[in-house]
Design a protein that fits this description.
This protein has 2 domains: 3-132, NADH Oxidase (3-Layer(aba) Sandwich); 146-214, NADH Oxidase (3-Layer(aba) Sandwich), CATH 3.40.109. The chain is built from 8 helices and 6 strands; from the N terminus they run ααβαβαβαβααββα. It has helices spanning 3-9, 23-40, 57-61, 81-98, 112-116, 146-149, 158-167, 199-214; strands at residues 45-47, 69-75, 102-106, 124-132, 179-184, 187-192. The strands form 2 sheets. It has a 4-stranded antiparallel sheet, covered by helices on one side.
Length: 219
């Protein structure tokens, strides 16, 4: 599976099999996390074989079941912290998808008290991402049309259209897709459009999808 296939195949999954993530896949994920932390300045970690992270009333209310592994997005409190969490968290999510795993971003429905004990003093906490072998592969959600999010009119370069299609497949909080994209002096620009929950984190996720698909860096 390549990155484009991973983008198309990734859907939110909340119910998991009681199957451990094996050593080889763990090693590949851990290598990527180290690389991501070095590049981003974040302190992302993965908790394996720890069902306590989603053992709470909120998690059950959110229909999570058998979550034994999860990614913790955390790090120094820098101005673009939320966007970095979205960007690099999704980079890990798509790698996990390519390795045969499923995932789900979670901002509220997890065991906050337990997870926050794993965040060192002086660091900011972002979100968690459930990880594992899903009972299903999830289902796609209704997406906005290209015309709803692309501000630039007229013919688009092929690379831009490819990136925009991938951006529309990015997970966003309650599927709000509050972003706009376009071209400025021939370069891609993506911005938050409107007010909503976790829009800055969503922006990072959307930017990663666009860049992974188009091969172009977003401003």
């Amino acid at each position: 599976m390549d990155i484009m296939e991973a983008i198309a195949a990734r859907h939110s999954v909340r119910v998991y099999k009681e199957e451990k993530i094996d050593g080889e896949i763990r090693e590949k994920l851990d290598v990527l996390v180290r690389e991501v932390n070095e590049e981003s300045g974040l302190d992302i970690t993965i908790e394996y074989d720890n069902p306590e992270g989603f053992d709470s009333k909120l998690a059950h209310y959110g229909n999570f079941r058998n979550v034994g592994n999860f990614i913790i997005l955390k790090g120094k409190d820098v101005p673009d912290f939320e966007e970095r969490c979205g960007y690099y968290g999704e980079k890990i999510v798509l790698k996990a998808q390519m390795l045969g795993l499923n995932s789900c971003w979670a901002a509220l429905t997890f065991n906050k008290k337990m997870v926050k004990r794993l965040v060192p003093d002086g660091e900011r906490f972002g979100m968690v991402i459930a990880l594992g072998y899903g009972e299903t592969s999830g289902t796609s959600r209704k997406s906005k049309d290209m015309s709803d999010v692309v501000a630039t009119k007229g013919n688009m370069p092929e690379w831009f259209e490819k990136g925009a299609k991938a951006a529309l497949l990015a997970p966003t909080a309650v599927n709000q897709q509050k972003f706009k994209m376009g071209l400025m002096n021939g370069e891609p620009v993506i911005k938050v459009d409107g007010v909503g929950f976790y829009t800055k984190t969503d922006l990072g996720i959307v930017k990663y999808h666009f860049e992974a698909a188009s091969g172009r860096k977003v401003r």
